[in-house]
């Protein structure tokens, strides 16, 4: 049975939504004010704030407040558990496919004989 990692689940949940992925892509360039993040989405500010809350809960962004301005910044190292998990899955499936390939090649060779 697969190991259940709640942090990984939070990360995948946060990354599952295209609006949140778009916000992360925008923040990859530089820290951005919440109002500037909300503009291109076409969503109302409270909806964008809920998306930001999910991203912050997953540790993917940090927010700071100066006066009345709230700014968000990406936390790139928060994606490391996702990268690690994906690398493990890739290695697992590549090994399985290599074994399948070897089996198919053996069967094909036996049929020729």
From TrEMBL:
Annotated HTH arsR-type domain residues: 1-94
Lineage: superkingdom: Bacteria
SMART domains linked to this entry: HTH_ARSR (SM00418)
Classification of source organism: Bacteria, Pseudomonadati, Pseudomonadota, Alphaproteobacteria, Rhodospirillales
NCBIfam families the UniProt entry points to: HTH_metalloreg
Protein name, UniProt field: Helix-turn-helix transcriptional regulator
Gene3D superfamilies assigned to the protein according to its UniProt record, in alphabetical order: Winged helix-like DNA-binding domain superfamily/Winged helix DNA-binding domain
